[in-house]
């Protein structure tokens, strides 16, 4: 079904006004549009691609996402399609020690621990549901619409496109190009513009670079990721089990992953912070090929496996790690009339690389703020209050994971001590348990005794 086109209705006539315009139909944009439409708001949802479309990703959908998948009405459909049900995460150290962290048993029982399935399929199910919600509420949906510019009130009742600066100006609409390079440009208007178009979002670019003259990209906080799909990898045959994160010596300071996505297909990938990758002589694709062909932990597992042609692709992950000189953390994500969500707001977890959950969470938060008439500044504050502690914590873990000796020591200890494995399961389950990581005494006790 997710390989078929989605009929999202005809393109509305240019010049129309909506309650909100959502730019981007990935998880962040779909969540924002879906929650607004469920409250009866008239939304224009614009997506550059036409479904079915691929999204380069590890394809793991964590527990955080599943409450949103349920609320948006997609959980049952998702469960009736092929997917891999995640029950645990296996970590390995550069020395080759393994530790398995079980996902919380209660969540596994409720089928809410985590899934892994191709984003082509996951995003299709979400977008298909949301485009219907949007249209039922009187809104409209455009596929194949490339948003080129943001419009701002010029203070005299007119509108300007997104050039120039001035923190006081208020977004009032967008310009979208339909039908490719030489296609027609249409304008649409709304008091709220939600930027959800990923790491190169034109709304984020306009707000950050043109209005505030703040940088969008930061190589210390952006990660490069490379993904391939393989068939026939040993140990990845089932539709239920563990996903694997390997801190391989040739890949540190980054990691190599094996995430089965059901029916014998595995998402195999590698990621590294961009400023650290700049110091390496090899590209991610070459590093991955070397691990698969030569590493003692993997070469036998891949001996009879084959890569699905055309699936080797790279993309970037904008991390949510706190930045030293930023006026807002992790960077500015709102201003007059603009709300950024997901990758457009740079919210990917800097340790695990998960971004789908935070895209859905921020999509809902932006929708809530719009429905309650709260200001974008309130949104910015609420967003960092909700996600800041775990993003900061994950950044600490990411920095620790750059040291091979520390990984060897920690994974070595954890592989022998059930108490550490339980602590890690707890940390996945609850925010309070994550707080324990900040307590030197708790960590010392758990690691040493
Ligand atoms: C290699 C790799 C591995 C990853 N692994 C995982 C993982 O296992 N689990 C996880 O949770 N996260 C993972 N992530 C992160 C995750 O993919 C993102 O955080 C997530 O997709 C963010 O969702 P989003 O809706 O904000 O943006 P996106 O998913 O990027 O969606 C943005 C949408 O906007 C559209 N768009 C772009 N430009 C325009 C435009 N001009 N006009 C209109 N529409 C536009 C795009 O076509 C796209 O559909 C990974 C990322 C990478 C690169």
Question: In words, what does this structure look like?
Answer:
The structure is a single chain. This protein has 449 residues and is of the alpha+beta class. Among the domains are: 222-318, 2-Layer Sandwich (D-Amino Acid Oxidase, Chain A, domain 2); 401-448, no CATH class. It is 34% helix and 24% strand. The protein has 14 helices and 20 strands. The N and C termini lie far apart (53 Å). The structure holds flavin-adenine dinucleotide. Residues 23-29, 46-49, 55-60, 145-147, 196-198, 202, 225, 227, 269, 271, 315, 317, 342-344, 348, 353-357, 359 line the site of flavin-adenine dinucleotide.
In short:
This protein has 449 residues and is of the alpha+beta class.
Rounded mean pLDDT score? 91
Shape: globular
Number of helices: 14
Radius of gyration: 22 Å
Summarize the biggest pleated sheet.
Answer: 10 strands, mixed
The CATH superfamily name of the domain at 222-318 is D-Amino Acid Oxidase, subunit A, domain 2
Oligomeric state of the chains?
A: single chain
Low-confidence stretches: none
Structural class: alpha+beta
């Amino acid at each position: 079904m997710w390989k078929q086109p989605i009929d999202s209705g005809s393109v509305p006539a240019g010049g129309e006004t909506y309650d909100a315009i959502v730019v981007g139909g990935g998880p962040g944009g779909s969540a924002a549009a879906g929650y607004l439409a469920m409250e009866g708001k008239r939304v224009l949802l614009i997506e550059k691609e036409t479904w079915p479309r691929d999204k380069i990703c590890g394809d793991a959908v964590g527990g955080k996402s599943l409450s949103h998948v349920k609320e948006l009405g997609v959980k049952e459909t998702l469960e009736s399609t092929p997917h891999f049900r995640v029950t645990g995460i296996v970590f390995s150290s550069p020395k080759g020690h393994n530790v398995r962290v079980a996902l919380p048993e209660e969540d596994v029982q409720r089928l809410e621990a985590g899934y892994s399935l191709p984003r082509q399929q996951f995003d299709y199910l979400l977008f298909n549901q949301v485009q219907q919600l949007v249209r039922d509420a009187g809104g409209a949906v455009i596929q194949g619409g490339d948003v080129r510019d943001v419009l701002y009130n010029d203070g005299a009742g007119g509108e300007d496109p997104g050039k120039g600066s001035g923190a006081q100006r208020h977004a009032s609409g967008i310009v979208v190009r339909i039908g490719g390079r030489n296609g027609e440009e249409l304008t649409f208007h709304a008091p709220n513009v939600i930027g959800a178009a990923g790491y190169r979002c034109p709304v984020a670019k306009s707000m950050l670079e043109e209005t505030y003259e703040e940088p969008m990209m930061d190589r210390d906080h952006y990660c490069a990721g490379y993904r391939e799909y393989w068939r026939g990898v040993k140990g990845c045959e089932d539709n239920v089990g563990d996903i694997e994160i390997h801190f391989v010596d040739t890949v540190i300071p980054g990691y190599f992953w094996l995430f089965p996505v059901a029916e014998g297909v595995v998402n195999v990938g590698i990621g590294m912070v961009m400023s650290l990758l700049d110091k390496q002589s090899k590209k991610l694709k070459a590093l991955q090929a070397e691990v698969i062909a030569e590493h003692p932990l993997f070469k036998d597992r891949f001996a009879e496996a084959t890569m699905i042609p055309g699936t080797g692709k790279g993309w970037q992950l904008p991390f949510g790690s706190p930045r030293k000189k930023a006026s807002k953390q992790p960077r500015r994500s709102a201003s007059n009339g603009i709300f950024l969500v997901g990758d457009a707001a740079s919210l990917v977890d800097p340790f695990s690389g998960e971004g789908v959950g935070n895209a859905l969470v921020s999509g809902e938060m932006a929708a809530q703020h719009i429905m309650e008439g709260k200001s974008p500044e309130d949104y910015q504050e609420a967003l960092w209050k909700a996600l800041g502690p775990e993003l900061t914590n994950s950044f600490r873990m990411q920095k620790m994971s750059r040291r091979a000796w520390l990984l060897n020591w920690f994974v070595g200890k954890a592989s022998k001590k059930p108490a550490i494995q339980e602590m890690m399961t707890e940390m996945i389950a609850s925010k309070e348990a994550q707080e324990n990581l900040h307590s030197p005494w708790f960590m010392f006790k758990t690691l040493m005794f």
